Amino acid sequence: MSRKVQVTFLAAAWCLSYPDAELVSRVPLVRAALGEFPGATGPFAVVLSLLENTSLMELQGQYVQEFDLGKRHALHLSYWTDGDTRRRGEVLGAFKKVYRGSDILVDTRGELPDYLPMVLEYAATVDLASGRELLQRYRPSLELIKFGLRRDNLPHESIVQAVCDALPGASPADEQAVMRMAGYGPPTESVGLDPYDPRLLPMKGN
Question: What SUPFAM superfamilies does this protein map onto (predicted)?
Answer without folding.
Answer: TorD-like
